[in-house]
Every structure is written in structure tokens, then in C-alpha cells.
Amino acid sequence: MPLSTEVVDGTIAVVTMNYPPVNALPVAGWFALADRLRELGADHSVHVVVLRAEGRGFNAGVDIKEMQRTEGFEAILGANKGCYAAFKAVYECAVPVVAAVHGFCLGGGVGLVGNCDSVVASDDAYFGVPEVDRGALGAATHLARLVPQHLMRTLYFTGRTIPATALVQHGSVVETVPRAELDATALGLAREIAAKDPRVIRAAKEALNGIDPVDVHRSYRFEQGFTFELNLAGVADERRDAFVQDGKAAR
């Protein structure tokens, strides 16, 4: 099942993404995730959400192959709207969202994690935004929530990745653990939050969003405008075609 939910201890909703081979979500997947998070936030029996994934890595962003086999701009528009909806749903979920990240977390994955409330990761996890190499822009808003500004710009311009162990030093990842311990660690943190009075935690989530110094929705939407420009100019299509061809050559 591409998207599943398990309730632990009656109060913790564990949402699992499973889109083989690399958890690059199709358009429908982003909207499905957004819907699921909104539903869970509206359910007052849910105190915390844990967002995790199966497979080789947490998330590889959007499904570029879906874009390139779809005529016109329908897929790129869908991916942009879907990502916006999913990132927004994470940020606005009425309860805290804990990300449990393993392996790669790229592009749209950084968009999800950057909007989560707490992040734990396996010691093999790494983060990056390769949008520049794909002829797109986006998720700098969310990468900037994980690393300081100058490092964010360097990572963004170069497409480099950064290990989760380094993010612990920046305070954006709570801790890194062996992959075999990741789920238990994320659940341990979720249980700690779930044990609090849920009325206070829901108020705290709303309050913390209200004092956030950056409007993540407006900031990300501004970035997306440049992606549309690059698509109209034909640049994005060229870069996505090159990515797909490189993937075929690698096989």
C-alpha cells in the first residue's frame, strides 16, 4: 500500500510512505498525503503523528518520470500543487508531526521534513535539494529551517547533500541512531509528547506556528513561481529529460 496509517498506543498515528523504488511521490501521492494529515489532525484521539517511509530512503521528491511521460503542463502543475498541499498539511497539522528519516531525503522530502515539528534520523540519512540540477526551484524555504542561511545557499546552488549527523549540530535533527533503532526512537519521542495534555499541545502547535518568523506558505509559493518561468522557457524540460536519460543509461 503506497500510504498507510497505523495507530500506536491509541494516540500516535504512524503514517508510512511506500512508493517503490525510491519514494518519489506521484501527483496523486502528494495529495493523498495532504488529505491523510488533515484527517489525522482533525481527529482528537490523535495526539501526535509520526511520518516515516519504507524502502531505500525516506523520500526522493517528485516523480520526474511521471512528468516527462505526461503531455503538456498537467503533471508539473499537479506536482507543484500537490507538494504545496502536502507541505502545508504537515505544517498546519493540529498536532505535532515527528519525522523519522532514513537513507535519502531529497527535494520534496526536505519540504516535508522542514515543516515537521521534530526530526529524528538514522545515522545513514542525508538531506539535499537537487532542484537546480532538475531545472526547478523550491524547498529552499524548508532547507533554511534545517541549516543556517549561508550553508543553505551553498547546498542549494551546488546540489550537495548534508548528513543527518551534521544536522544534529545545527539543532534541526534531534538525534541520529542506527537504522534498526529509528522507529523505536521516533515512537519514544512521540510517546513523550503524547503523554502531555493534548489540549495544551494543540494550542502550543498553533501558537508556535503563529510566531514563526517566516511565512512558509508564501515563501514556498514565491519559489514555485520561478519553476513555472523555467518551464515556460523550456529549461526545466531539458533538465528533466537529461535526468531521465541519465537514469536509463545507468541501468
UniProtKB/TrEMBL annotation:
The keyword Lyase applies. InterPro entries: ClpP/crotonase-like_dom_sf, Enoyl-CoA_hydra/iso. The keyword Lipid metabolism applies. GO terms for molecular function: lyase activity. Gene3D superfamilies: 2-enoyl-CoA Hydratase, Chain A, domain 1. Coiled coil: none annotated. Keywords: Lipid metabolism, Lyase. It holds the Pfam family ECH_1. One of its GO terms (biological process) is fatty acid beta-oxidation. Belongs to the enoyl-CoA hydratase/isomerase family. This is Enoyl-CoA hydratase. It comes from Cryptosporangium aurantiacum. The lineage of its organism: Bacteria, Bacillati, Actinomycetota, Actinomycetes, Cryptosporangiales.
